[in-house]
Amino acid sequence: MAKYHRNNVGSLVLDHHDPTTNATVGGHFRIWNAFSASSIRRFLFDAVSCGGGSRHHRHRDNDFSSNDSTTTSSSGSSKDKSQEQMQEGSKSQPNPNAVRSEKLADLLNIAESEIDVQTKKKEKALEELKTIVKELQSEDLTKREMAAARVRLLAKEDSEVRGTFAMLGAIPPLVGMLDLEDVSSQISSLYALLNLGIGNDANKAAIVKVGAVHKMLKLIESPTAPDSSVSEAIVANFLGLSALDSNKPIIGSSGAIPFLFRTLENLDNKTSLQAKQDALRALYNLSIFPTNVSFILETDLVPFLLNAIGDMEVSERILSILSNLVSTPEGRKAISAVRDAFPILVDVLNWTDSPGCQEKASYILMIMAHKAYGDRHAMIEAGIVSSLLELMLLGTALAQKRASRILECLSGSLSSTISAPICGSSSSCTKSDGGGKECLEEEEDMMSDEKKAVKQLVQQSLQNNMRKIVKRANLPQDFVPSEHFKSLTSSSTSKSLPF
Q1: End-to-end Cα distance, the chain
Q2: Under 8 Å between Cβ of 219 and 178
Q3: Is this model's pTM higher than 0.70 or not?
Q4: Where are the alpha helices (DSSP H) in 248-300?
Q5: Is 213:260 a contact under the CB 8 Å cutoff?
Q6: β-strands 10-14, 2-6: how paired?
Q7: pLDDT higher than threshold 60 for residue 224
Q8: Does a structural domain hold residue 336?
Q9: How far is 285 from 241, CA to CA, in rounded Å?
Q10: What backbone phi and psi angles, to 5 degrees, belong to 77?
Q11: Which domain holds residue 386?
């Protein structure tokens, strides 16, 4: 049995038992025969459709038929309304392609406007640079000085401006301002040229090509002593211009090296520390070119540099200059001619807190030991052996290799030094009676004993030095056994070297 409950008519019971039974059961009315089959089907459809028949208060056929017509009309009207809404929505909704094209057009307009703004800015900046270059050629000295100051300021940070100024022709009038007698104009033009050459090789070459180097030297060699600010500006320009390889021979042969040496020497103590450092760096740049070595050796630069070693701020750069000079025979001769040159260089090998200085000093000593036999004895007398052994233990990899090469070069000199005492002790053995042969045999025995004694002394000395080295390195005292020292010193060939 299926039951259908409605709020206003009680309970509706569809009984599938015997249809002949007409009695009422529990207050329920049997209405099986009261409705037709079509009415029941419609009634059930409305009931299942979420209470579609709940608005009917009486169960009559005409009620259901009227409900049917109402539902049909309402459904039809709802379809018409939905279609109208869809049509209106389609009309009101914009076309996506049109929206995209509008956005693209907006972006293009924005980009074009930005490009226009940047173009206008560049045009304005270019006009300003043109005006400055035009004022550099003015007859009014005040305008020229102010224009040079503007070039100095604008070219200091902007590399593009440096190239633009050069293309507009700013370099020749700036160089021409060096002929003026006004110190302020000279300084402005010098620093403007300095900034134009920063990071721009074409500008550096152009500055030298128009004769700036000779004009700068003319200011220095004038009868009246140049202003210290002008001298420092010239030193800074020589530093910047000498960085270009094509400018090195021009500056070196122009007479700039003596001026740079005087600035570095600074006997009157009027030069600033910055100017000294710039002069030292400029001399390093010039020493790279081999033909400039002869101009450097015409001054007393080599003795000055060797005697200045010890100041940790400049020692590494000094050793770099000497490393360039030692590549030529004249440079090696000049270095070895300086008194105490080898003790100074050997002492640098012990600067464990400055690996760069150790590497450069070992390079200088290696070249000199390899090229000049007479310098080897001076190195040995300066105590280089113990310093090299220490360097091979505590130095950098490059310093260790160079120390090994120096020991290889010194090995022959060490053996000759050991046998040197043998040579002069046989004057009493020269006999004319034919007994010279016996005397020579005795002398050989004596020489062999002396040689052995000297070797033993050398071994003991090396052992003591190595113990000191181990102690300085804070290593265990038994780090290297004594037998190792004996094997290291028993032969004077390079086979005994660890590298």
Answers
A1: 111
A2: yes
A3: no
A4: 248-253, 256-265, 273-287, 292-297
A5: no
A6: antiparallel
A7: yes
A8: yes
A9: 10
A10: -65, -35
A11: 301-417
Q: What tens digit of pLDDT does each residue of 337-365 get?
A: 999 999 999 999 999 889 999 999 999 99
pLDDT score, position 20: 43
User: Residue holding tokens 């022709």?
Assistant: 169
Residues 390, 159: Cα–Cα separation, whole Å: 49
Give me the CATH number covering residue 334: 1.25.10.10
Q: Of 360, 362, 288, nearest to 324 (Cα)? A: 288
> Please, what is the Cα angle at 202 between 199 and 207, to 5 degrees?
100
The residues near 258 (Cβ < 8 Å, ≥ 6 apart) are 298, 299
Tokens of 142: 């005040």
Residue 19 near residue 32 (C-beta atoms within 8 A): yes
Residue that is written with structure tokens 């202003």 in the block = 227
What is the DSSP track for 21-79?
A: ----BTTBPB-TTTS-HHHHHHHHHHHHTTSTTTT--S--HHHHHHHHHHHHHHHHHHH
Residue 2 pairs with which residues in a beta bridge? 14
Residue with tokens 């265990």: 476
Give percent of the chain above pLDDT 70: 61
Cβ atoms of residues 440 and 429 within 8 Å: yes
Q: Judge residue 423's burial from the number of C-beta atoms within 10 Å of its C-beta, 0-12 exposed, 13-18 middle, 19 or more buried.
A: exposed
Tell me, yes or no, whether 106 lies in a domain.
no
Q: Could you tell me the sign of the dihedral formed by the alpha carbons of 191, 194, 196, 199, in that order?
A: negative
**Which pLDDT belongs to residue 297?**
96
How many separate domains does the chain show? 1
Domain assignment present for residue 364? The answer is: yes
Q: 290-327 pLDDT, tens per residue?
A: 999 999 999 999 999 999 998 777 899 999 999 999 99
Residue 219 counted as domain residue: no
Token pair 């300021």: residue:
153
